[in-house]
Design goal:
This protein is an all-alpha fold. Helices cover 92% and strands 0% of the residues. It is rod-shaped, with a radius of gyration of 30 Å.
């Protein structure tokens, strides 16, 4: 009788550990995805800023004045 109770308790502990392991895996996977998305957005913003700066530099080198550049972008 006592051995049956001990066996059932052990099974419950094993099942609990398995469920906790599954939950940890799911949470870790979600964390990795969110981190990757944030990194991708940050890299995209940085790339966009670089392209924008290069475009302004190219416009200035073409001989346009800053006022002309601002006017072109305003319209």
């Amino acid at each position: 009788m006592a051995s049956n109770v001990l066996i059932n308790i052990s099974k419950d502990e094993v099942e609990r550990a398995r469920l906790l392991s599954e939950e940890k895996f799911i949470l870790d996977t979600q964390t990795l995805l969110v981190t990757a998305e944030r990194k991708g957005r940050q890299e995209g913003r940085q790339e966009g800023r670089q392209e924008g700066r290069q475009e302004v530099v190219d416009l200035l080198r073409s001989g346009k004045s800053p006022e002309e550049i601002i006017k072109d972008y305003s319209s």
